[in-house]
Amino acid sequence: MTGLILKLAPNERVLINGAVIENGDRRAKISIRTPNANILRLKDAIHPEKAQTPVSRTCYILQLVLTGDAAVDEAHDQIILGLEQLSQVFDDRDSRNILAMTTDSIVSKNYYHALKQLRELLPREARMLSVQR
């Protein structure tokens, strides 16, 4: 994750290598220079009980990799399988582009960007599920 720039809102929290860091009263920009640092914005975190849909479950696995709570080797296959399953459901061009970018990020082991990209499908998935009910 060399060269990752985090732009933090006032009082925003981020998890970096197991430590919760809270920003002060002003916006801030943090440059992460350590490769393979485990980083997760806490506002983006998904609680295990909320990981009930295919997209949220795949996001949750990515989150576990980012926090260091899951071994990359074990999680990699689950993430790829989840993305393959999602590609069978999300067949519009924009969603396919998101899935392709997410897959590219996974292959290059850029899990932070993969999670950021995949989260874009959460609202689409919610709309799809609400229509099916």
Largest sheet: 3 strands, antiparallel
Query: What structural class should be given to the helix and strand makeup?
Result: alpha+beta
* Rounded average pLDDT: 90
Helix content: 40-55%
Q: Order of SSEs, N→C?
A: EEEEEHHHHH
Overview of the molecule:
The chain has 133 residues and is of the alpha+beta class. The chain is 50% helix and 16% strand. It is built from 5 helices and 5 strands. A 3-stranded antiparallel beta sheet has the order 3-2-5. A two-stranded antiparallel ribbon has the order 1-4. A hairpin with a 2-residue loop joins strand 2 (13-16) and strand 3. Helix 1 (54-67) packs antiparallel against helix 2 (72-89). The longest helix is centred in the middle third of the chain and has 18 residues, at 72-89. The mean pLDDT is 90.
What's this, in brief?
Helix content is 50%, strand content 16%.
